[in-house]
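Re: beginner question about structure tokens

> Can someone show what the tokenized structure looks like for a real chain? I only ever see the sequence side.

Sure, here's an example I had lying around. Input first:
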Amino acid sequence: MIPQNNSLDTSVFERSSSTYIHNWKRFYIDNDESSFERQYATFYSSRLRISTDLLHQQIQKKWGPSANVKRLCDITGNEKVVVIGTIFKHMELHPSILKEISEEHNLILQPVNEEFSREDDFLMLEDDLQRVVLCGNIDPQTHVTGVNIAVLGYTEESGNFFVEDHCYPLVKDPEVLPSLSVDKYVLLVSGFGLRKGEGMFPLQLLIDLITGHVGDSKMQQKYAQVVRVIIAGNSIGRGEPDVYESKYVARKSRRGLNSESVQVLDNFISQLASSVAVDIMPGEFDPASHLLPQKPLHICMFPKSSKYSTFKVVSNPYDATIDGVRFLGSSGQNIKDIRAYSNISDSLDIMQKTLDWAHMAPTAPDSLNCYPFRNEDPFVLSECPHVYFCGNAPKMDYKFSENKSVMMVAIPKFLKTFCALMLNLRTLEIEPFVVCDEVS
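And the corresponding structure tokens:
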């Protein structure tokens, strides 16, 4: 049980402050980028163009300046070359629009799959002119469509390209962690899933702890060091599932927004914003655009919270610098999609892959809906953040990346786990924040 503050201790603790810089301008969609008059081919071309310079840097670092880099159309015979391109993963189980059409004509319904990878999947590499099947030392099960890559190898008699080695775009390590003299914390939480009054007690308890309304003086002093709360999506719960939708593939039904849940969310957030800075991101099931990058939730949803200057509606993905520590993350759609199209199941392993690939969401737009960008790709990573997070993960987890420079954080669904995470800005250490074990 959380100890009640019934003692005569009248200590008053002042909320710690922090500097804040938002870096998510590239995730804001202007009218030109939101136009669907063009196709997505230019998006892949832009991604490859942006990644090519980063790939050349990695090629020189790994194979030396004498590496024989050629385009697919310029390869002759079985010479050993390095080819730069974009991976396309051929998958028999990949969802098809033809299946949806068959449903509309009352034909055989297709069973739902949550995972689409299969042992006979194979990879192809394509550039601006052509594509070739890859074989050899590259695992189709740990790659997805949309990854930019450089492969070293040769063309076999069959016409396939045998991969001896491969590398991804070079990503810079984050800047040196700023030196803070005191501990300050950022609270990371996701998946409130508010629906018809469910899950209110754990959420209210979380808010009361952060705002200092419960707990002894030691706890209050601790939580007064929380300088910002980041809510990583899915704050509003889904409607009741349709029986057929749970068994068969179907177009998403448009369920009405539960205005009561929105009001409850605003009430909760306003309590937080009265005491601490709050950033709220949209998620997969929130009333926001389904396409990535998701625009911020509309401010009219928060008439009470918006009165506070500490409250911000932000985009998904999220990118901001807090006291010199850069945070980059998403509400989890990109990680969930990669899990469905590969055999990588652990959230942190997938996050590590996206850092290796220098891209947050390589499966967009193939299987992850996004805007048809023309001259840029906002998901490309040229420099690593200090903290890289994803919301609505199946379980809580965190660890440093392979090069020990990035703290990767998988934020669980609060509705399921009643758990959040506190990140120390001084050390990047994580403290799990379990509000309660069980709600009776």
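Each token stands for a local structural state, so reading them left to right follows the chain. Confidence is low (pLDDT under 50) at residues 240-256.
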